From TrEMBL:
The entry's keywords: Membrane, Transmembrane, Transmembrane helix
Segments crossing the lipid bilayer: 12-33, 53-71, 78-101, 113-134, 141-165, 177-195, 207-229, 264-282, 289-305, 325-344
Coiled coil (residue ranges): none
Organism: Sulfobacillus acidophilus
Superkingdom of origin: Bacteria
The protein, known as: Uncharacterized protein
Length: 354
């Protein structure tokens, strides 16, 4: 991982602030755990009005916020966050958005040590509130913080997922992984009645319809440059050359070479694949084929398009692929038939494919 490390003085100041915030957060977590142990009767756990799908989504989003916090805690973030992560986002953005991002960068550089420590522990705190807050007030506070801070990060740290820039690509992470955090928090704020009904599963279904439709449009857009030999292959090659295990990088090198040799074929195949998935979620969302093809494509885009978010370079989050996989797991809890008995039942295939 390249970059310029902070000076010894800045690094010492950063760790001093980091440890202070760690003590405060640890104390708050300990108090919360003790409260849960001593003042919450066992019957409260048994009367949880939410389905398992709700708990899976809460655990997943809470865990991702904590992971993001630890990634933000990298010392390089003190000196390289603005120049290495935020500044490249300004290029090609509409003037109002570019102005906001530049304003946020200037505010950050006033005291980057304090800013990075604050962002680190705010994200960890959000995750802990969601994980340990039960189904009551503390989790709702965490969810509202997730929405508020998520929108801040989406604007200033992700430039609205770069959807207004030619060359944006859903496989890269557009429209922004933190936007999915925000949408997940909105779902978790819904009432138990809505979670017990089919409202949430339908919202996830339409979310995938929109995601794959947007993917096809961005991939097919002529101005994106993805139809030429260099644009997509160079992007893949730049990821492959980052410091990471060879078993992860080797498929990226192969993918870059394949795209460079036949850009029209591979980009056309991606467009058709995304349109096919959008049609599956629109017309046959409960078909096992829909779930498994989606899971496969999401995993491959998370690997080949996003490099798992954190393996190559100075990653601040694992990108959007893992959030989409989490959405699939939640949908499975609502519709268990999507990966159920069909594996052993030939008649199930015949009944659903004819």
């Amino acid at each position: 991982m390249g970059g310029v490390l902070p000076t010894a003085r800045a690094l010492a100041e950063y760790y001093e602030i980091f440890v202070s915030m760690a003590i405060l957060v640890t104390a708050a977590v300990a108090m919360r755990v003790m409260t849960l142990i001593h003042h919450r009767p066992l019957s409260d756990y048994r009367r949880n009005p939410y389905p398992v799908a709700y708990q899976w989504l809460a655990w997943g989003i809470g865990g991702l916020w904590i992971l993001d916090g630890f990634l933000q805690a990298q010392p390089l973030m003190v000196t390289r966050f603005v120049g290495g992560v935020v500044a490249p986002l300004i290029i090609g953005q509409p003037l109002p958005l570019a102005f906001l991002i530049e304003l946020g960068s200037r505010l950050w550089t006033i005291h980057p040590v304090l800013g990075n420590a604050f962002a680190t522990w705010l994200q960890i705190t959000i995750g802990l509130l969601i994980l340990l807050g039960g189904t009551g007030r503390w989790r709702r506070i965490g969810l509202w913080l997730s929405i508020g801070w998520g929108l801040v990060v989406w604007v200033f740290g992700e430039a609205l997922g770069s959807i207004f820039v030619n060359g944006s690509w859903v496989a890269q992470g557009s429209p922004g992984s933190v936007l999915f955090y925000v949408l997940a928090a909105v779902l978790l704020l819904l009432s138990p009645t809505l979670w017990q009904s089919h409202v949430v599963s339908r919202m996830i279904r339409w979310g995938f319809v929109g995601l794959w439709t947007l993917s096809a449009l961005l991939q097919a857009w002529p101005g994106s440059g993805w139809w030429t030999a260099n644009s997509l292959s160079v992007y893949e090659l730049s990821m492959a050359q980052m410091a990471q295990p060879s078993v992860i990088a080797a498929p990226l090198y192969w993918w870059s070479s394949a795209i460079h040799a036949h850009p029209l074929f591979w980009n056309g195949l991606l467009v058709v694949t995304f349109l096919f998935l959008a049609a599956l979620w629109l017309f046959r969302p409960r078909l096992p084929l829909t779930w498994w093809v989606t899971a496969t494509v999401v995993f491959l885009t998370w690997w080949l398009g996003q490099d798992f978010g954190v393996l190559g370079g100075m990653g601040t989050d694992p990108n959007s692929g893992i959030v989409a996989l989490l959405g699939l797991l939640v949908y499975w809890q609502f519709c268990p038939e999507v990966i159920g008995r069909w594996v052993l039942s030939v008649r199930y295939w015949r009944r659903h494919l004819t």
